Every structure is written in C-alpha cells, then in structure tokens.
Amino acid sequence: MLTNFLVIGSGISGLNFALNAAKKGKVLIVTKKKIIDTSTNYAQGGIAAVLDKTDDIKQHVKDTLETGAYHNNKKAVEFMVKNSTSAVHRLMDLGVKFAKENGELKLTQEGGHHHRRIAYVGDYTGKEIERILVKRVKDNKNITILEDAFALKLITKTKACFGAQIIHKNKIKTILANQTIIATGGIGQLYEFTTNPPISTGDGIALGVSAGCKTDDLEFIQFHPTALETNSYPRFLVSETVRGEGAKLINSKGEYFMETLHPLKDLAPRDIVAREIYAQMKNGPVFLDCTTKCTKHSAKFLKNRFPQIYKQLLKDGYKMEKDLIPVTPAAHYICGGIVTDLYGRTGIKNLFAFGEVTCTGVHGANRLASNSLLEALVFSNQIIKKLKKSATKFDDKISSPKLLPKNSPTTKLALHLKQQIKHLMWQYAGIIRNRSLIKKEAIPQMQKILTKLFQLSQNKILTNQTLTETENMAKVGILILQAAYHRQKSLGCHFVD
Ligand SMILES: Cc1cc2nc3c(=O)[nH]c(=O)nc-3n(C[C@H](O)[C@H](O)[C@H](O)COP(=O)(O)OP(=O)(O)OC[C@H]3O[C@@H](n4cnc5c(N)ncnc54)[C@H](O)[C@@H]3O)c2cc1C
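A: This is the predicted complex of the input protein with flavin-adenine dinucleotide.
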C-alpha cells in the first residue's frame, strides 16, 4: 500500500494533522482500536488559550513556565501561546461549539493559571473536539481511515523513514509513505492507576526510539490529583475545573488542607496538589467537597456545568451537591517524549511526531493544565508549511514476523507481564521516587520482564498486538526509570525522597 502521508493515531494531533495534510496529498490514518478510542475523547476540562481581552500572551507564557519549573523550552512556549488564539478559532471554524455567554466565549480556570483562559464544552470538551474532527476527516475524500490497525514497526533505512508495518485483519501489511507521522498519545497504561484509556501504552515512543529518535524529559509524569477512588479502570477523572468553580479538597479530619499550603490554594499546580493528597491519604481518605454549601453553586448549576461528571458520580452513589467525593491521584500525562522541533521534525528524515508522544519542550517539568490539547493542535497545524512531497522508493526486502493467535498461551503470559510492569511503575516511578530503589530494584526487574518478552517472541520472530504492546511498555518503562534515576533532584512532577 502507498500513501503520501501515513498518520499513526486518531486523537486531536493525528486528525488535525490529517486535515491539514489532505490539502497536499493522500492521507492514510491507522488507529489501533476504533477511531474515537483516544485520550482526546476523554479530555474534560478544556483547552487553554489567550482568548480574553484582559489576558495576554506574556501571562500565559509566564504561567506555563512557572508550572513547568522553568525547565521548559521558552521559544517553544512562546510559539505555542502566540498561536493559541488562532488554533482555538480554527477549531470553532471546523464546528466546535465552545460554551458562550452573550456571544462571547465563556472561560474557566484550572490549576496554575492566573487568568480564566480555558475554553470548554461542558465537561466533555475532548469528546466534542474528537467528534467534530472525526466528522471532518470522514467527509474528506483525500483521507482514508483504517481502524483496528496496529503500527508494529517503522520502516527505516539510513536515518530515513519510509512508512510502517501494521497488523490489520490478522495480517501483517506494509504501508509505504512519503511522510510518516507518529501521533500515538501517552503512556498512562504503564501505571497501575491511571486516567488514561487502554490505548495509551507508549507505542509511539517505542516506535520512535527503534527508528533512532531521541527522547527527553521522560521522568516528568504528571499525576492528576483527583481521580475518583473506585475500582473502575481506568480511573474516572473529576476535572480540575470542578475546583475551578470553587470545590475544595478536604481531609478525613474535615480540614480544607490546601488553604494554607499554597497561594493558589486548591488551584496550586497539579504536582503540589497530588503530593499533598498522597501525604494526607496516609492518615485517611481525601475528598473533594463540591457540595452546595462549599461551592455556593446550586445542584442545578453543578448538573448543567458538569453533566458527564455528575452522571458518573451519581452512578457511583454520590450526589455532587451533598456528598463528599473520595479522590486519589492517578498517572495522567507524560510531559516528555520524542524530541521534536517547532515543525514536528524528529531528526529522522520524513518522520514527524505530534501531540502527547512528543517532547516539544513546552511543558518543562510539569504541564500547565489544558495546555496539552493546545500543544497537540498548534504543532500539528504548523508542520504543513514545511512539508515537501518526496518520492517514496524502498526496494529492500522487508522481513515480517509470524502472527501469534490472539488467545495463545504466549498472549496470556504477556498479559500477566503487563500487570507486573504496571505494578513496578506505580511502586518505583510514582508520585514519590527513591533513586537507589529505582537502580537496585526497578530497572533490573523491568529488564528481566523485557528479556522474558523477547523469549516469548523468540527474538521478534513471533508477535501479535498484545505481545508488542507489552514489549513497548517494558522498553518505555526502562527509559522512564533511567530518566528518573538520572535526575538527582526533585523538579516539577519528578519528586525524589
Ligand atoms: C481523562 C483525561 C482528561 C484530560 N483532560 C484534558 C483537558 O481538559 N485539557 C487538555 O489539554 N488535556 C487533557 N488531557 C490530555 C489530552 O487529552 C491528551 O494529552 C491529548 O488528547 C493527546 O492527544 P494525542 O492526539 O496526542 O493522542 P490521543 O488522543 O491519545 O490519540 C492517540 C491515538 O494513537 C493511536 N495509537 C496508539 N498506538 C498506536 C499504534 N501502535 N498503532 C496505531 N494506533 C495507535 C490510539 O489508538 C489513538 O487513536 C486529558 C487526558 C485524559 C486521559
């Protein structure tokens, strides 16, 4: 199969890139589950941008740098924020209807922001963005979508990419492309407790590294402070915008403990709030108080403003207006990834990356809330100005592994190893880390898991999606652990004891 642009992933970055690229050539999107199975579809809070007359670029840049512990690439931050207004307007032009009042965008606030600057659609912003982008992509004659198509391996030679091998309909297929785009999202599934959907297994980082891409900032994993404490998997997120509308964290003694801890109180940066909840949980459960008494908002307001959250909490037995909601931190977002420049270039010819899989440098050591949808959008808008069509010629023989049945004993073993990886990562690369344990315990144990996986695949002769995903998780796990070990001092969301 031949295409001009091969896009791996159907979240905001992949779909938005595809729409831009379709103006220049044929686009093929491969996505490993159904098209809407993305983190994008889960995003609740909204998208940050300079949209209010009293806000300005400088302040949004300052908030991003401050939250990122000044570890950010300032040039990339300025670039993103300067392009934020037009990026949100582009979404509106495509059909996304953000909340408005008297014709003006209604804006909300989240942790680390010193201004209300987050455009939203109820508490299901990502779902609405995904719905509109999918609609536009499906209407576009230059774009073809392959669902249940798993990118197994990139086809590379002498620091250039020529496409990918995929598993589709129980066959291994080769797709040759002029440009290949990694838009595979995050890594939350490496952790026992996460808000991320099942697709977030770090495949893109593993694909990129195998192709020779550089990675950076992998140790900066953001833990969202307020996932609902239940047995559900992934954990349901109670968006920070709930605190943006006045809800407060409260401990088992009835103390609003964030009040005295940080000038921004409950809206302090996520790493600070997550760590404090983690510490408080040693003495008992922590709750989010969104009751009418605390927020002064009526039950009607809460129901209308947070329809999805209200419904889910009700299912779990909680009424927002009168019950305290038990919350706990969960792995949420990776700030680092494949190193890219302002145009998504990876350093491998004809290979680009966008969205959560990248390290553009905008997030530094900690992501400012609602900057991720923005980053994915702004950068995937930009590249098209620099794209050149080059002929794809790849005459080398491409070897294919043999496909294992989905329910083989090997697959079951791989699933078992997946659980071990999640447990290891939560224990050693979680909210509070110990470098000596990472070196002595976590890295050797993860390496053992990887060796077992190589044995199961008979050194990559046999494979299937589960086996490759698990291998990807172990490989990316080792990279995260190594990065966490090498960062000696606490910074942003990397915290060492
Ligand atoms: C619960 C939750 C709430 C969030 N809320 C917000 C918010 O309010 N604001 C904000 O800015 N950010 C938020 N985020 C973060 C944000 O949603 C993500 O960072 C962003 O959507 C990532 O977009 P993406 O295009 O990079 O990846 P994704 O949207 O995750 O898409 C990745 C795609 O890659 C595909 N894929 C992966 N591996 C392969 C493979 N091997 N082969 C083929 N396809 C593959 C997946 O199937 C999927 O289609 C939230 C995240 C979560 C989980």
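The first strand starts at residue 2 and ends at 8. The radius of gyration is 22 Å.
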